[in-house]
Amino acid sequence: MDQHDEKIIDAEESYGLSTRLFDEVLDAIEADDAPAIDAALEPLHAADIADLIEQLNTRDRRALLQLWPNGVDGEILSELDENLRDEVIAQLNPDQLAEAVRDLESDDVVDLVEYLDAPQQEAVLDALDASDRVAVEKALAYPEESAGRLMQVEVAKAPEHWTVGEAIDFLRSDIALPDQFYHLVLVDPRMRPIGQATLGRILSSARATPLKDILEETFITFNVNDDEGDVARAFNQYHLISSPVVDSDDRLVGVITIDDAMIVLDEEHTEDMLRLAGVGENATISDSVFETVKQRFPWLFVNLITVNIAALIVGLFDQTIAAYVALAALMPVVASMGGSAGTQSLTVAVRAIATNDLTASNAWRVIRREMFVGLLNGLVFAVVMGAVGTFGYGSALLGLTLALAMLINLVVAALAGVLVPVVLDKLKLDPALASGTFVTTTTDMVGFFAFLGLATVILL
Amino acid sequence: MDQHDEKIIDAEESYGLSTRLFDEVLDAIEADDAPAIDAALEPLHAADIADLIEQLNTRDRRALLQLWPNGVDGEILSELDENLRDEVIAQLNPDQLAEAVRDLESDDVVDLVEYLDAPQQEAVLDALDASDRVAVEKALAYPEESAGRLMQVEVAKAPEHWTVGEAIDFLRSDIALPDQFYHLVLVDPRMRPIGQATLGRILSSARATPLKDILEETFITFNVNDDEGDVARAFNQYHLISSPVVDSDDRLVGVITIDDAMIVLDEEHTEDMLRLAGVGENATISDSVFETVKQRFPWLFVNLITVNIAALIVGLFDQTIAAYVALAALMPVVASMGGSAGTQSLTVAVRAIATNDLTASNAWRVIRREMFVGLLNGLVFAVVMGAVGTFGYGSALLGLTLALAMLINLVVAALAGVLVPVVLDKLKLDPALASGTFVTTTTDMVGFFAFLGLATVILL
To answer: What role does this protein play (chains A, B) (predicted)?
Structure first.
């Protein structure tokens, strides 16, 4: 991958920052060498500078911002992790901040300020022109994570009865156009979007062609209140490049482009992964130790409670264990296999729900399928553990106990793995929300109870 | 979300298929009612039809294809899960197949045939025009999952010395242009791309403006051999819409557009999630029971071996457990808390490596940070479990044992969670590759050994 022109990307890395450049900047910070910092950062893309700022520790970050006071512009602020934006903006004085945000498009300003503290938000809004400020404040009135917040209000549009020639003349006239646009949106007299044509198609059609004849086949509009995650998944499902956004009267109020949708899809994935693992959804490696503990503590605490309940279950069988100590060594085998199988089944189900592949229409079929998968894997591992018990631990009855417990727990694991997210989804909760903890709790408890209970019956 | 024109999307669902429509199709299949199937499916987007085909069971799927013989077109085939394509294509006769693929762009045909069996691939290639066939065969010569396979060969390009006026005249002349394009790529006399201008910018600039003066600021080219995952992440990092692809002589050979990059990014995320859970990377809920068992068995087997080793560790302490049976109940608490904390730390690290936020430059800092997080969480949970041991199980020494083991295992968990993916990445292996199994194995073994070892020293 090469990058020409003004932006340079290091060839050694697949993309982004090189270790060499990072070290150069560190050295320049150490040496208080402002020109060297400028020379190193100036050629970089804003996204890479933001990554670099995120990778520095707090002390170096502060030093960098002091040595490079006019370097941080609106684009870099936009690219920064939300958690760091406050910190960086707090270090800019009002003039620097005004200068930084002035050139951004409305959707980027919204993205920048929506999670800032009230005084910082005010400071940024004060730096905008009156008309931009109105646009941003209007966007902020839409719900968080909605299409209204994601859209840009700058739209290239035309009346529905126009021809290609009229459209070209219009676009080539002196009107203000968005920085980036890919479609001309056709609107009816009441400003309702009725279709859109790509610029490429407009350019390659005869002047007399009505725009209505060259509209794109797939045309989807979003409502300002639509969830941004649904918007992003629709972009991916239907290969949209840009789509109009309408208000409650179906009037055109903005447009969402695929680059923003791609970022949202990326974030949604990350949130799913983090939630599955019981980590706060905005967790990043640039969070402080204290923030990180706060993010992770709650689900560890839930886990602590559930696993102590599992311990009580084990405690019920203390006489069995006292009589047959090998059970203590083998009960984690049954529980752990259940946990692994449950996590497998869970992960596939969470993905399938996110992509609308697992719905009410096929839930029963999928549940049945998982049960068979659990049964088959359970049978194989029952045979293996039966052999381990019989030959490794010298007791055919122990082998039988292991085999039966393994079979039961793998079927339960497969079922729990699909049922937990399906039920959460049915309850309108996030299917990924700490499902992992629920599933492993189930497999721990069932694993211990089945194994030790069977042992009590079979071995004693 | 509304969709007008030819494609209809149900308003009740966020997007995609409704349960009602699904049931309608099922009823029509049951009733052998071909016109009803046609009426139900005809208005749908190809992506939704593919989803529907995926959600049917094998018998219904076969019935549908027989009742709707000319319905499956190239777009639907492109949208189908790879695992199902063979099955569906096998049911089409050569004429139907030829008809289906004829209108696809070269990159879609490549995507369609790359993982087909040789005879099926041959059948599709035979259906193409000679020139399309050459383009597809050339693309298939590039490595799997490379930029060369992802790109389309149809490019809108112009000599570097042209003006806006010349470009517009050229685009409006009778030349063949790609179906969808957003940029005009400028090339030097040796066909090396030197920049690109958006159609919007070209349309809104004066005729005499040299194209060189309105090039996009960020310009990145990819090599045909670049990994498609890196390409997708670069699109997301730099907000690219389309980017040229060059061969080893830096000559323009194709272009990649963001909609394809978005699909790749989505797939990469899914693969990461599935790998973390120890599931085959292409697993979907439409796989058969047998395929699913095959995908999940290997890592369950690895887990079986490691957890049996952990059982041997427990076995070393059988006399301690025999003397103090409560240990058997409490040892899973220590192991499970370690597993949960390790999974949290692992998930954040795997994401950070995927987004280039965790690199050699800051690895030590992140490792140190995780250690502190583990230490802090460990201290809190040590106090809690110390209390549980002292008051719940009536032994202060047991409480002390629990507290120390908990502290040790949470620090180890935090370290393992970040070290396992960092080391895998350093070894050029996928950091997500069954890291979960490695981490929980570590925390199981350390948890059991620390707890039972300390118990032997403190309690006996």
So the answer is: Acts as a magnesium transporter.
